[in-house]
Amino acid sequence: VVGLKFNVDFITALVERWRPETHTFHLTVGEATVTLQDVQVLLGLRIRGDVVTGSTACNWRALIYELLGQTPGEEDLKGASLRIGWLTENFSGLPEQANEQVLHQYVRAYLLILMATVMFPDKSGNDIQVVYLPLLRDLDAIDDFSWGSAVLATLYRNLCRSSNMKARDIGGPLILLQLWAWERITIARPIVTGPENPPLIQGPYPLGSQHQLRVDSLGRRWLSVHRRRPQGTTITTLLGYRDALDNMRPDQFVWQPYPQAIFSFLPEACYNDSGEWCVVSPMICFDIVEWHLPNRVARQFGWKQNIPEPADTEPKLHKMDKRGAHSRNWAEYHSAYLAMWFRRYQFRFIGVEDNSDMGYNDPYKVWYRDRTRRFISPTFQQAYQAPLGATAYLAHGFAEVHRTCNTEIQAMPQEVPPHYRNIMSNIRDNTSQSLEHVGYSHLLQQFHQPTQETQVEEQHEERGDGSTMQESTAEDDETLQVFRRRSRRTNTSMSPINEQGTPEPSKAKKIWSRLRGKKKT
After folding, report:
1. Element (H, E) at 245
2. Residue 320's CB: how many other CB atoms inside 10 A?
3. β-pairing verdict for 30-32 and 77-78
4. pLDDT of 323-351, one tens digit each?
5. What pLDDT does residue 231 have?
6. Strand, coil or helix: what is 78?
7. What burial class does residue 441 get, using C-beta atoms within 10 Å of its C-beta: 0-12 exposed, 13-18 middle, 19+ buried?
């Protein structure tokens, strides 16, 4: 997944919803978080294994020469921070006829670059902590470490620190957060394009156009070469993503994006530690210790979400780092947490299977609403944040006009003259174009359903027969004004909905009958 472009505004909107007290995002649909399952399925990193930790008391310059075969300059190595540019400059291409020792040196350099850019990047994006280099001494033993838990612990730590109102930036494995958001949150999600010649398998092919079957992790399907921007989705600002998350519907969050069938496309490294996914345990990466609490997001595993027990993420741990502890043996310092990690199987969370939709009055929902802030930027507050707040306020009004027009079009009887339908269609289309222009077209996703008329228009465009909607006349405009006034008086701006969820045509028929009668007179 190297080379994935971040959606900075979307990530910022998510960080605003992170709660260090629970290690979860507080969304309108409930708590959700990145779990060990997401790390392994999306990145293919192992969960089972030894803790990624050790001592930082080391002569790093001598160790680099021993394991990489070259010595960095004074400006390239400061303390335990090694400049990534030095690695790329000296290990960009494997020499011809390289022996086994040189090959191992290049492998270690590549792994350090991978850690610096994907697994453990810092805020600067320019350095890598060489504390990981001792773990790469024996290349055959690399698979013995729980790299997945270390990466997730690093993400949690950076989210906790960046959620502070004084924070100005964020580091850590944001690639994991970006992939997790695209898998689970459908708002502004890119579309994954399939291959021209998919493998001979049953059912649709869910992976990207260049995805290597049973080789690549699931996260690689979101690379730029595999995806494209969905039409009509133009959220490009932080305010737009805040508003979209504030108004997110239950069906816009995917609780279980990894069906069992998808594992047949992935290598075993993406699912062979599934027994580790639900452990309630501390996750450790040298100075970092963060708690994994899957019991708070039971729906992500297909289980019923009950009111969770009070969480203790030990906020004091968030203040701990390597500063002032350059020669500390972190394995000994965190020995109590290491013992918990090795006993993690005793604390596996197993819930009751329940894939049904959670109702508004579910005990968990009632408990959750009383204890969290579900809305980051309420509309009534946005009105005072001109000019962007006023735009958001007006955008909601335009979206309501669009929804009303769309509902009335669907409720119109067949005998209604075409130009009446065209008038409503023009209003609907103008509002959608305006919303798209200001970056709020996501508000239409919860309303838009293609009508019979729009399907006919699309067919005309595909046939190229030149069929177009009739131009509205002055008489049409006058009719529209009559309809607006009478709709206002009779409070029919919204068609009633029956038990099947479809608009009732009764009131609409009455309105159109009156309009037709007035026109005849």
Report:
1. helix 238-246
2. 16
3. unpaired
4. 878 889 999 999 999 999 999 999 999 99
5. 54
6. strand
7. buried
* Paired tokens of 297: 């997001």
Helix (H, G, I), strand (E, B) or coil at 331: helix
Contact assessment for residue 334 and residue 281, using Cβ atoms and an 8 Å cutoff: no
Q: Which two tokens stand for residue 201?
A: 């398998």
Looking at every residue in the chain, the average pLDDT score rounds to 81
pLDDT of residue 123: 83
C-alpha closest to that of 445 among 489, 406, 490: 406
User: How many contiguous H segments (helices) and E segments (strands) does the chain have?
Assistant: 17, 10
Task: Please report, to the nearest 10 degrees, the dihedral formed by the alpha carbons of residues 307, 256, 236, 441 taken in order.
Answer: -90
Max CA separation in the chain (angstroms): 98
Partners of 331 in beta bridges? none
Measuring CA to CA, how many Å separate 364 from each of 27, 29, 211, 253, 371? 14, 11, 39, 17, 11
Radius of gyration of the chain (CA): 28
Alpha carbons 27 and 375: distance in angstroms, whole number: 8
Which of 405, 376, 360 has the alpha carbon at shortest distance from 242? 376
Tens-digit pLDDT profile for residues 182-196: 999 998 788 777 666
Sequence letter at residue 155: L
pLDDT at 243: 86
Share of the chain above pLDDT 90, in %: 50
User: For 281, phi and psi rounded to 5 degrees?
Assistant: -160, 155
pTM above 0.90, yes or no: no
The arithmetic mean of pLDDT across residues 463-473, rounded, is 37
- CA 298 distance to own-chain centroid: 18
36-40, 103-107, 189-193, 202-206: range with lowest mean pLDDT: 202-206
> Own/partner pairs for 316-324, CB < 8 Å, 24+ apart?
317/289, 317/290, 318/20, 318/157, 318/160, 318/161, 320/287, 320/288, 320/289, 321/287, 322/56, 322/80, 322/129, 322/131, 322/286, 322/287
pLDDT for residue 164: 86
* Pure H helices in 304-387: 330-333, 335-342, 363-369, 379-382
Residue 251 tokens, joined: 């069906």
Paired with 279 in beta bridges are 348
The pLDDT-based confidence of 502 (bands split at 50, 70, 90) is very low
Average pLDDT of span 105-122: 94
Note whether 22 and 193 are within 8 A (CB). no
Angle at 245 between CA 242 and CA 246, to 5 degrees: 85
Q: Which of 406, 411, 402 is nearest to 496 (CA)?
A: 411
Question: Quick check: 284 and 63 in contact, CB under 8 A?
Answer: no
pLDDT at 440 over 90: no
For tokens 């972190």, the residue is: 330
Give the CA count within 13 Å in the CB-facing half-sphere of 67.
23
